[in-house]
Write a structure and sequence with these properties.
By secondary structure, this protein is an alpha/beta fold. The protein is built from 12 helices and 10 strands. The strands form 4 sheets. A 4-stranded mixed sheet has the order 3-4-5-6, with helices on both faces. Strands 1-2 form a two-stranded parallel ribbon. The longest helix has 38 residues. The protein is extended.
């Protein structure tokens, strides 16, 4: 039904290209992940067939194949979201039954817990920085790249930038954690910040999962914009974006951030090459070969036999043309062979002897 409605939309192609929207069932989502997933439970007060889709109980030890498949379906289906999950329900959670109700109650409890103010212990900066270090050290990203990573807690980044830039007039910012990731040709500097609920957000009563990014305090926004202008990347950590498994979430976000920097660098290199080629074509240092469709140095087009000194084709294409013109097939079909030996064949076109 959802797929049919989507296909009837005039903007269906934009949904796919720009939003990467995909409609899946619990049986077709194996191997797929998305940052945001909307779950439609397709169960109403009048009709609920979820008992045929999910197991009756999560503690059920029934070893029948169909029950094992139901358990696998439940585990796979609810583990596809990377950042955020939305549930679309047509009846209260209490009216669901079996493992479907258990799963929904679990996520409802998590939502309520995150909607409440954190305790003083959880908001304690030192405690959270210690947890953050533990999570980072446990990530797959850190384990696979430990020899390329340097971590600097409480790094005085404002003082450091002031030493590099005499015109630096911003506050003496301090980074909760500076992660330095060394690439072969450069170092990617990532500022990792843990944003406590009370210290970094304003108007606490209005904040919930979908809108938290709009309630950062002005000082935090200024800090990020200033540091990004100096080439630093930002990774903000808070209770809204840690996910159910902070270690896995952090690892995925770090991989994605590093990949984004690599893509940007590649794009910048391509742009720089195009700009350099255009400039070289304009001042005559380079020329476009009409045969191989490549832009090459003007030297490769030199031809002493031409009055202008330079031809339309590069040296490689000129050589290829000459080799092709000298290759002449003088073979005689079997049906036309004669017994009398041929002593010499004169080729008038080239003046050569064969």
């Amino acid at each position: 039904m959802i797929t049919q409605i989507l296909l009837a939309e005039s903007n269906v192609r934009l949904y796919d290209e720009r939003l990467k929207l995909k409609i899946m069932t619990f049986d077709t989502c194996q191997g797929e992940e998305r940052e945001v997933i909307l779950y439609s439970m397709v169960a109403t007060a009048q009709h609920d067939a979820l008992k045929y889709i999910f197991p009756i109980s999560l503690s059920d030890t029934d070893e029948r194949v169909d029950e094992q498949l139901k358990m696998q379906r439940l585990n796979v289906g609810f583990s596809r979201a990377q950042e955020c999950m939305h549930f679309i329900l047509s009846k209260p959670i209490e009216q669901f039954s079996g493992s479907a109700r258990t799963a929904l109650q679990h996520y409802d409890l998590l939502l309520k817990e995150k909607s409440e103010a954190e305790s003083d212990e959880t908001d304690n900066s030192l405690l959270m920085e210690q947890r953050l270090m533990q999570w980072l050290n446990a990530t797959e990203f850190f384990r696979n790249n430990s020899d390329r990573i340097e971590l600097r807690p409480q790094f005085p980044i404002g003082d450091y930038l002031k030493q590099l830039d005499p015109l630096y007039r911003h506050p003496p910012f301090r980074a909760d954690l500076l992660l330095m990731f060394r690439e072969p040709d450069k170092t990617i500097n990532i500022v990792v910040e843990y944003d406590g609920f009370r210290e970094h957000f304003a108007e606490h009563g209005k904040i919930y999962d979908p809108n938290w990014a709009y309630y950062y305090k002005p000082d935090d926004i200024e800090k990020q914009m200033v540091l990004e202008s100096y080439g630093y990347k930002f990774l903000r950590i808070n209770r809204f974006n840690l996910g159910a498994d902070p270690v896995t979430t952090l690892s995925q976000r770090l991989y994605a951030l590093v990949d984004t920097v690599r893509i940007d660098n590649t794009a910048n290199q391509i742009t720089a090459k195009v700009q350099n080629d255009v400039k070289s074509l304009a001042n005559g240092d380079m020329k476009y070969c009409q045969k191989c469709k490549q832009t090459k140095s003007i030297i490769t087009f030199y031809n002493s036999s031409l009055s202008t000194g330079y031809g339309r084709y590069c040296r490689d294409c000129q050589k290829a043309s000459k080799r092709k013109s000298k290759t002449i097939d003088v073979s005689v079909p079997e049906t036309q062979k004669i017994d009398k030996p041929v002593e010499k064949i004169e080729m008038a076109s080239s003046g050569g002897e064969y």
